[in-house]
Structure formats: C-alpha cells, structure tokens
Amino acid sequence: MLIKAALAQGVTRLFDKEKKTSLGLERCLRLASGGAPVRLRTEEAGAIRALDAMRDAEQHWLITVSEDLMFLHVRALVTVFDDVMKRVFEEGLADHLPTRVLPLSSRPPAGLDVIIDQEFSQIADLLKPGRRQRDEARGRVRALLAMESHASDDEVRISEADIDRIEKAVKNGKSWREIFPKLGSIRAEVRGVAGEAIELRVHFTKAQGAPVKYTDDPNAAAYREIDMQKRFHLSATQLAQKTGVTVPMASAMKNAMKLDEEKECMHLFTFGKAKHRGYSDKALTRMRELKEHADLKEIWKANRS
After folding, report:
1. Angle 272-274-276 (CA atoms, 0-180°, nearest 5)?
2. Dist CA 109 CA 191 (whole Å)
3. Where would I find the beta strands (DSSP E) of the chain?
4. Where are the alpha helices (DSSP H) in 37-111?
5. In percent, how much of the chain has pLDDT > 90?
6. 0.90 exceeded by pTM
C-alpha cells in the first residue's frame, strides 16, 4: 500500500484495464523502480520481495526463520519504509508512530555471513540420518531462498523442486556458497544514526560481480529457473503503444539508444524457427524518458533507416 500510495502521488494508473484488477506487488515494484516519484532502489525492492517470498512460503508450506534473520529482514523493511516516505511524502516514519519502545530482538545480530553459515550448519545437522527433522530443515531452506530476493531484479518464487534439489545437495556435502551462490553477493549494513534518539538502520546491498552463472545443466547442485517471458513481457508493438509513438518511431528511438543491445531491456526468444524480441519495464521507462526529453524529429531523421 505504501508503494501504491507513492505511485498514485505521481499520477500512475494503478488499475489493469485488461485484467480488471488492481496492480499486484511485483508490477508496482517495477513501476516504482522506473523513476520519479518513488525512485525505488534495487536493494529496497529486494527487501520488500524477500518479505513477500517469506510470507508466501509460510502461507503455503512451512518456513523457519531464526531470530537473527528475522531481525535483519524486519529492520531492513522499516528502513525502506522510512526512506520511501521521506523521499516521496517528505515525512518520516517516526512522525506517525507513538512514542514507545518496540524492541525487535534481545541481542544485536551477527554478521550476515556468520548468520547464513550458522543456518546452513543447522540445516545440514537436521538432515543427518536418524534426526527425523526434515520438515524443519526444509523450512529453514525456504528462509534462505527467500533471501535471494535481495540479489534479484525479479520476483523470487520458492518451489518444492528447488527445495528437493537443495536438500540433495546438502546431503551430498556441498557448501552453502555452492548451493546458494546469490547469497554470497549480499551484504547487510547495520549502523546506528545519532540524533534526537537512537536510530538503527539496516540496508541490504548487492556486491559487484555476484558469483552467479547461467547453466542449462539439470544436474547442477541447486539452480533457479527464471521466467524470462514474465520479465520481458512487452512486444515491440506493445512497447510503442505504451510509449505513445508509432512502431517505426519506436524502432528509431530504440536504435538511437541501442536499446536492443542492453540485456536488461531486451531478450530474444526463440520458438522453433521463429524469433521474437521481448522488452522489459526498464525498456519502457527508457523510451518514455527519451520521448519526454529528446527531439523526436531529429531522432527520426538520424535513425529512420
């Protein structure tokens, strides 16, 4: 609701005419990441996605979250909530909260690498023969998978197939960095801020050069499937329509920006002998910004071929 309120502040349409429903969380996060008024950062969207993935896992299956992980997640989301309010509404979260102390943990959390290592050791111990605590181990695996949202630009879905592969990899003695490569690229910055009162802020950040590689090997220890059609869901015609220009003009604009060369904007799908270009919401944002700030007549003259 906070993200929707921020989008509405910028007069963004929050109702899908085709589906006759209000926009879902993932769609709102993509719109909010596009620019003003929200200017939602990748790590902020990741914090929201992580909590959403944990909620889904708890609602449909079972999830076990340690006190340390829960503290980091909740405190990070409070930080995001406060930052978005200040950025969009020029009001702080503290302006609307009662003056009482609400502790989230009885002890400060350890470093993120230490927490993940402890969680993984616990999972491996629970999966040892004779323990009969497989359900709790799988619940802890779901909590770690939900954390991958911090290092992903897309919604993370936790499937039972993923859990099965990870369980097998743990029993085979794989390390957590081999099984959860994305978690190795996440950092949690916990710091206090001096002011009228003590304030603790948590930011999840994604380190450069994430140790993740793409593979089509079905025997990989623990791979995650990415729905590319969901991410690159716009055709060239739809991209032009949503930008408010003709298809030829949209082609000229794409040529001017070399949009088709950007992996985050365009993906080439191959269906048999047919090939189809799909565009992301980031591509749509780039097109709209170009339309607003550039001279389209000059772009047409230079790129109409």
Report:
1. 120
2. 12
3. 15-16, 21-22, 186-193, 199-206, 266-271, 274-279
4. 42-60, 67-89
5. 8
6. no
